[in-house]
Amino acid sequence: MCTVTPISMTVGANRIVPTIAIPHPLGNPALTLEEEKAIRRNLLEKAFKALTTEVSDQTIFE
């Protein structure tokens, strides 16, 4: 999980899950608690999918 995907590509990460923003990678403090939980759940589900998906090249999980 990262905020700057080109850096992850450069260092050779094989599974990349883009996050929200540099100061708050896993959320947005301007949102309500319910909206924040939904964003975090979505990001975690993407990360779990990335971990369980077989990849042969660098892959960004949008």
Walk me through the structure.
By secondary structure, the protein is mainly alpha-helical. The chain has one domain (5-60). The protein is 44% helix and 6% strand. It has 2 helices and 2 strands, in the order H-E-H-E. Strands 1-2 form a two-stranded parallel sheet. Strand 1 (15-16), helix 2 (33-52) and strand 2 form a beta-alpha-beta unit. The longest helix has 20 residues, at 33-52. It is flat. It starts with a helix and ends with a strand.
Task: Give the topology, please.
Layout: H1 5-11, E1 15-16, H2 33-52, E2 59-60
Parallel strand pairs: 1-2
Number of domains: 1
Tally the beta strands: 2
What percent strand?
A: 5-15%
- Rg over C-alpha atoms, rounded to the nearest angstrom: 12 Å
Strand order of the largest sheet: 1-2
What is the average per-residue confidence, as pLDDT, rounded to a whole number? 96
Q: State the distance separating the first and last CA atoms.
A: 11 Å
Main sheet? Answer: 2 strands, parallel
Which word captures the global form? flat
Q: Give the proportion of residues in helices.
A: 40-55%
Unreliable sequence segments: none
**Secondary structure category:** mainly alpha
SS field, number of helical segments:
2
Order of helices and strands: HEHE
